[in-house]
Amino acid sequence: MHALSLLVAASVAVAAPARKPQTPAVTNIQVGPRPFWLVDQMEDSPLKTELAACSEKPIRHAPFFSISHRGGPLQFPEHSREGLYAGARMGAGVLECDVAFTSDRQLVCRHSQCDLHTTTNILLIPELAAKCTTPFEPATADSSATAKCCTSDITHDEFLSLCAKMDSSNPDATTAEEYQYGGPEWRTALYDNCATTIDHKTYIEITQSLGLQFTPELKTPEVEMPFQGNYTQEIYAQQLIDEYKAAGIPSSRVWPQSFLEDDILYWVQAEPAFGKQAVYLDPRVDTAAGYEVAVASMTDLYNQGVRIMAPPIFALLNASADGEIVPSSYATAAKNAGLDIITWSLERSGPLEPAAAEGEYYISTIADVITGDGDMYRIVDALARKVGVKAIFSDWPATVTYYANCLGFH
Ligand SMILES: *[C@@H]1O[C@H](CO)[C@@H](O)[C@H](O)[C@H]1NC(C)=O
Ligand SMILES: *[C@@H]1O[C@H](CO)[C@@H](O)[C@H](O)[C@H]1NC(C)=O
């Protein structure tokens, strides 16, 4: 095993990795000990009793309800082949690829166009590090280490020669080696032995071979568009859809996402079969004023053909005076307008700590009723049974898969 990983690491360092053969569908779904530990952490309640009663029930894929967010990035390097398989093994029914483009306009899986310095080993490969938008600068007495490396800085083949690693960096680093890992401590570098970077076409092949569904996200470009003078946002959005058509994937299994309303409306108009499954990742909720605008916009969005809203978890939940987690005004408005709701991302915050909850993006609106990790399934249950979400993105899909199996969400 060790020799094999050394071999993989060595070959990746010199050349693009050879395509491995297709692996058969994952059928032996494993959720591991974490869901059981989370149930154990709960205070006594009817929900705890329901969830505990499922402990010996066989686990299957949750065909839609459990979405793997970037693979399994609580532990695995995100957007790697290994992360995708981890998500599938944990029973996710839908796998995600965040899509960004390279200098030769190929689509690859990366959470943002310019995160290669923290999610790959690019800074350790001098000839590629030299191509970064901002090459590595060591920390000094008064400034943190910096670097900025974008998929659009390098070619598709160069991208595939990189190793994926846990998204992390050390601001105090004085060398590129030191820069590679800087926590948080509840993530891990355990699987950082050169995980395999993948392009969008390979992601389609893997997900198809597993018999699962697709949710590609068109990442907002961090370079000026049109890129290279003529690569427009519409060409980019169309290229994403075209790769499904070329692979013969029916639109019914593809859930394209974007934070840009214009991308959603482009797909609704230019590719209606894909557009009716487009997922609008709603960035407006990040400010109080934007939240109100979003709440007021639901019917208008529906009339323009939008069908699925996907705000972050905090935007869907509220704390009631008697300590319950209840639907927010956003959740109610979306439902009333006939819109479906998907949300993100469970297990992204690390431990649920009451003292820190207010400052924690995903749970800020329910900070008053958070007591610890025993609340993880209270959050999932409020989303599933009170808000009525169709699916939940998670950094560790096992948690949602266990809930979905237990309580019959598909
Ligand atoms: C885009 O511009 C490049 C030069 O930057 C040119 O080689 C290419 O043919 C152009 N493509 C289209 C579709 O116009
Ligand atoms: C949250 O609940 C409080 C108290 O009921 C209410 O005043 C407030 O408008 C709610 N906020 C949202 C965003 O639903």
From TrEMBL:
Signal peptide: 1-15
Xref: InterPro entries: GP_PDE_dom (IPR030395), PLC-like_Pdiesterase_TIM-brl (IPR017946)
Catalytic activity annotation: a sn-glycero-3-phosphodiester + H2O = an alcohol + sn-glycerol 3-phosphate + H(+)
Known EC number: 3.1.4.46
Keywords: Glycerol metabolism, Hydrolase, Signal
Keyword Signal: yes
Keyword Signal attributed: yes
Ranges of residues in domain GP-PDE: 69-166
Record family assignment: Belongs to the glycerophosphoryl diester phosphodiesterase family.
Protein name: glycerophosphodiester phosphodiesterase
